[in-house]
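Table 4 source record.
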Amino acid sequence: MATKIPNEFIEKGFEYPEAYTKIIELNLTDFDFWYIMSEEQALKRLTGLRQRYPERYLVPFARRDDNDDIACFDLSEPDKVQIIHDFASSGFEQRRTYKDLWEWLKDAVNELIENNR
């Protein structure tokens, strides 16, 4: 779990949702295609996202293994999960929005099940 969020995010009021803390406490971190990034991975991606998409305040927390999709919290809609196709041209990075972390988690687990049946 990334805890060293840059001050600019903290000053804008970013806090990890309770659902995120819960899935970390339960060690629900690997869903085959999706996995929760380590603090080092998440901070490296956060730095890159700030450079590639400076108009957005994205906090990455999970990565998809088979492509450049990452799951992020966005300060403009902190309860939602944004799926970002990292390295896409600015304005074309948005893949999907989930209403909350639980909806994203449900999809990640369902995909795990479907691909391993």
